[in-house]
Design a protein that fits this description.
mainly alpha, Clc chloride channel, 2 domains, 75% helix, globular
Length: 442
């Protein structure tokens, strides 16, 4: 029995024969492929500049005392002079763009100029030793590329916001982490806070296309390697409680610091941050170099290698690694340079997980480290589903699904007691308010 009416069949045929329909399909597909390619190039560039900085630091541990202040000062100067709107993670700007009514306002944070600037300045920040990641910037880059493709096709405002921007951000996460499922979940839970049928196909299409490009070039790798660790249903589950509570307290505290810093620091640091941002960035670079010197150089950069070494049990890191990496990430954020907090936060969580594993010799160390990562990350972003899906996909920890879920939701609940507002939402609202204050029409 044919349940499709003749009228519906005619409309379907007309739709599939419409040049406008195919143009939009090409825009979605081409934009997603472009996002995947940009994410791959960004990943390769990040690895290259990180190796270059390691070589510089290896030649002399004191060279960053000069390189980091000068590098971060240059990054902040270029950001404010040529690429305003590209500072920070990029996720708050993308969320704010979804709420901007005027195309000119969205253009200030989502454009090809912003995308190129975000890539170049984040790489320069990494070359300066900043504790930043490329995942948040890739979200803004992906949204910018899809926004540009949509502008050329003259999409409607609804599709532009809920379709292209969300799809571009989700594709950025999927390609950056090589985690397609996490890209979808991130768009639903963090960026849109809802899942609407009209945008679901767009997001899924973009994620798949961007993920295929990343997979074709970089291969089917796991971000932090693989762990076969598992928790038995006995005392090992105490690790869930401890990692969830500790991760929520520490992650919530970190988020609260960043939200407070976005509103302005008190006293002389606050005045210097407002009135002399380039000089303030240089001081942040000096503090970053001092932290790196005290840690033996392990707090520089994204933290990928350190987190992977901790997870695989091959790390020779100081016990204070988690705390010192957290401080380096805060200083890097305060400097005002572009760069994300995803990867550094996962590295901080791995460091704290290593500390907690020493308190629970009856639980597999690898399992506690993974729980430390998801507990702290859930505490920072307050998006528990995104947290456990990302960590599960990045570490191939399918045997740990239930403990990861429990730790993520516990970390989120505890974090809400410490920091009442989700980090990215609060930063997006602040960015949107400042954008409206400086708008010529107001």
């Amino acid at each position: 029995m044919n349940l499709i009416s003749p009228r519906t069949r005619r409309k379907t045929r007309v739709l599939w024969l419409s040049p406008r329909h195919w143009r939009r399909r090409l825009v979605f597909g081409g934009g997603a492929v472009a996002v995947g390619a940009a994410a791959v190039l960004f990943a390769e560039g990040s690895e290259y500049v990180h190796r270059l900085f390691r070589e510089i630091n290896g030649a002399s541990a004191y060279l960053p005392l000069l390189l980091s202040p000068l590098g971060l000062a240059l990054v902040v100067w270029a950001t404010r002079r040529f690429f305003p709107g590209s500072q920070g993670s990029g996720i708050p700007q993308t969320i704010a763009a979804l709420k901007m009514a005027e195309p000119a306002e969205r253009q200030k944070v989502l454009s090809l100029r912003i995308a190129f600037g975000k890539i170049g300045l984040t790489l320069l920040a990494l070359l300066s030793g900043a504790s930043v990641g490329r995942e948040g910037p890739t979200v803004q880059i992906g949204a910018s590329l899809m926004h540009a493709f949509g502008s050329w096709a003259r999409f409607s405002r609804y599709e532009l916001e809920r379709g292209l921007i969300l799809a571009g951000g989700a594709a950025g996460v999927a390609a950056a982490f090589n985690t397609p499922l996490a890209g979808v979940v991130f768009a639903i839970e963090e960026m849109s806070r809802s899942f609407e049928q009209r945008t679901s196909g767009t997001i899924l299409t973009a994620v798949v296309a961007a993920g295929v490009v990343s997979l074709a070039v970089l291969g089917n790798y796991t971000y932090f390697g693989h762990t076969a660790a598992a928790l038995s249903l006995d005392r090992g589950w105490l690790a869930v409680l401890l990692c969830g509570v500790a991760g929520g307290v520490l992650g919530g505290g970190f988020s609260r610091m960043l939200i407070g810093a976005a509103r302005g620091l008190p006293g002389l640091p606050g005045r210097l941050m407002r009135e002399r941002p380039v000089a303030f960035a240089a001081l942040c670079g000096l503090a970053l170099a001092l932290i790196g010197l005290a840690s033996g150089g392990v707090t520089y950069g994204t933290g990928y290698q350190e987190a992977r070494a901790i997870l695989e049990g091959s790390a020779a890191l100081p016990e204070s690694y988690g705390l010192m990496k957290l401080l380096a990430t805060v200083v890097s954020y305060l400097s005002g340079s572009p760069g994300g907090i995803f990867a550094p936060s996962l590295a901080v969580g791995a460091g704290f997980g290593q500390n907690l594993a020493s308190l629970m010799p009856y639980a597999p160390a690898g399992a506690v480290v993974v729980l430390g990562m998801v507990g702290y990350f859930a505490g920072v972003v307050q998006a528990p589903i995104t947290a456990f899906v990302i960590v599960m996909e990045m570490t191939d920890s399918h045997e740990m699904i239930l403990p990861l879920m429990a730790t993520a939701f516990l970390g989120h609940a505890v974090s809400r007691l410490v920091c009442h507002r989700p980090l990215y939402k609060a930063l997006a609202e602040g960015f949107l308010a400042r954008s409206q204050e400086t708008s010529p029409s107001r």
